[in-house]
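tool=predict chain=A
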Amino acid sequence: MAPIDVRLVGVTKRFGDTLAVDHIDLEVESGEFFSLLGPSGCGKTTTLRMIGGFEQPTEGRIELQGEDVTWLPPYRRNVNTVFQNYALFPHLNVYDNIAFGLRRRRVPEREIRARVAEMLRLVELTGFEKRRPSQISGGQAQRVALARALVNRPAVLLLDEPLGALDLKLRKQMQVELKRIQQEVGITFIYVTHDQEEAMTMSDRIAVMNRGRYEQLGDPESLYERPASRFVAGFLGVSNLLPAILDGTVGDYAVARLRDDTPVRIPRGQTAGLSRIEVGVRPEKIRLREPDEPVPDGHNTLTGVVRDASYMGVSTSYIVEIRGGARLTVYEQNVERATRSELWRPGEEVRLSWSPDHTFVVPVEDDRSSDEEVPAA
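tool=predict ok
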């Protein structure tokens, strides 16, 4: 097991009567790309600022590589932070921006030249040394900010939505670049974002935060395929959730019955200890068929009527109303139905099917209705 670079023990933060962070316990391993993911106001940025020393916790302890740093100021912690606005010095060129921290620490000029050159190669900006921040693009400015933070060789790099100011295409390119850079330097990254695709693309593990706590922590695949709550299911992409009642087992599967008594099979391990549940399936897992078309043995099957079809180029998004009135979202790649004239049309009857292994379960929480709207991604 890798050593722990950051440990939070019972960390709480209050701003007056507002509870921003609620008794978080968290461990981040050395060399890990770790993301705090959640909507605005969930406590993710406050948590990051407490790790960096920009905020002090109301309660709890923060450790960095085994040392209690709870009350140490930022300059005495071996961490650096990259912010969304980059905070580059406009009067300094790229080279001097990157070298700034080294010069403050009185590092010899020969070593500064070597380390700045190393960082410029890492972020692929060799040859940009003499340019000012006003003479480079947003993506290049983000790389300069990253190089300036990494040149000091921190134990942990904190990143507070650093790609938020970039356009969509550049943001996607920088996601790949950030992961590459993190793997090359081997430094622990703790990344804050509200963008689930961003977190899924780059992270080794993700803590999905809501109301000051994280609802689930794990690798991207397990969070997406096996969300532990209605909130996580809705925040990490789109989920179809249907109220159901458990009704025995068949082989390796538990059986749940929907409100219209349709049986749905679920992997047995997911239902242990649960009573009131919702069964879920992701839109891309569902296959649409003709009403009389056979389905593979054991697959879950529903019947419905297409209510809407939205052509999106790579795929088509369908809204299908099933018996009982619930509406499911289905994504179908435009392979078999290559042109718009071949798509399912509103009003057509269809059969929906999916493997029971792609079914997941979330508990119905006592303070929420099972018909409550799932948060959008």
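The chain is about 20% helix and 35% strand. The domain at 4-225 is CATH 3.40.50.300 (Rossmann fold).
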